[in-house]
Amino acid sequence: MARRKRASNFAGIAAQEPFLIVGRNPQLVTAISLAIMCVLALAVTFWAARDFLLPIAVALVFAVLLSPICLLLEKLWIPRALAAGLALVVAGVIVWFTFSVIAQPAARLFEDAPAMMNRAEKHVRSLQAPLKPLTDISREVEGLNIVEPKTSPSRTVVVQEPGLASSLMASAQKVVVQTGLVFILCFFLLLTRSEFRIKVIAFQPTLRARVRAARVFRDVGRRVTGYMVTFSTINLCVGIATGLACWQLGLPEPLMWGGLAMLFNFIPFLGPALMMGLLGFAGLATYDTLLEASFPLLAFMVISFMEANFLTPTIIGKRMMLNPLAIILVVGFWIWLWGPLGGVIALPLLIMFKVICDHTPPLRVVGALIGAPLVRGNGRTLEEAADATTADAIAAKAVVAAPVT
After folding, report:
1. Closest to 216 measured CA to CA, from 101, 352, 50, 118
2. Which residues, in sequence order, are bridge partners of residue 371?
């Protein structure tokens, strides 16, 4: 007796046509494609115009950070132009003092560079001793006589590269020009910040949009300034602790190592890793035994662990915490695009972008993925307080009523 075949559960399902999503949602697919193309075009533009855009980005970050100082000076009846100039002078003195603390000891260490390299090479050879058999085998393989086929003689064209002195001179000129451009742009951004804010708010079409724009300007200043001031204080503590540890361990120029630790800690994740490598090399070049050479590296690892797991979460708290994955991706992207300086300004740019996302309803998901949502003073999140409050509405009306210059 023939067994009857059982009907499949998938027999009643109609076959789907290919590209069904495209057919039903052509506008969505078009929007996604255009967004991807726009991101790629922006990345290429940022890379191609980095010499022009990098000073603008640095000046924007410095203008946001120096705005509270200018506002404080203006409250003391100091003219706005003079207040902007004084704020830039204060920032320039701080930057000059920081780099002088590092540059002078570094110049003294370069004088003793040959002896340090010899000591470091001796320790590296002792570390390579267990791998000596493998090294001997690789040398024997490289020493084999391989008969190459005879070929006709060919000419080799050697392109002479510019010398070290000319390269350093060109780099120095570029740095001087970009630094001057940063200070000039920062001065005019500080000088015209109020007019720019008023005009942007006044040209919004609705009251809700004006309130939202006012909140964006307010929260960008507060969050970027608050985060960077707190972050700078934490990095200063890390630098002081590293300098004291190097001084206690007898490492030469502890002030320089403390300054480097403070500066490198502004680049999350990548900066501390680079500092560990430098301290490891300094230990190998300074001490006579491998155990003593590991002490500076271990001390900085303990300091970095305490800062990342106890100091930063306690001071900053969850309200200002950013997603570590977002930080790594953003910092890596800007370092790849604009170099080390791009990694320094990556966090302020990320905070600005997050504030804009938190205040823009279609982008609030992106802001939540970057970090914790903005929290109002009464504990409500931005989504719960999306409607304009009475105080914000009155402030927006006052801003709009002000004369636009």
Report:
1. 352
2. 322
Per-residue pLDDT of 56-79, as tens digits, reads: 888 888 888 888 888 888 888 888
237-246 LR contacts (CB < 8 Å, sep 24+): 237/307, 237/311, 238/262, 238/265, 238/303, 238/304, 238/307, 239/263, 239/265, 241/303, 242/275, 242/299, 242/300, 242/303, 245/296, 245/299, 245/300, 245/303, 246/279, 246/296, 246/299
Q: DSSP string spanning 312-349? A: HHHHH-GGG-B-HHHHHHHHHHHHHHH-HHHHHTHHHH
Helix axes 26-48, 50-75, angle to 10 degrees: 90
* Residue 19 scores a pLDDT above 70: no
- The half-sphere exposure of 139 on its side-chain side, counting CA atoms within 13 A, is 6
Taking only the tens place, the pLDDT of each residue in 337-374 is: 888 888 888 888 888 888 888 888 888 888 888 876 65
| Contact (Cβ atoms closer than 8 angstroms) between residue 345 and residue 353 | no
Confidence of residue 379 (pLDDT cuts 50, 70, 90): very low
The pTM of the full predicted model, rounded to 2 decimals, is 0.69
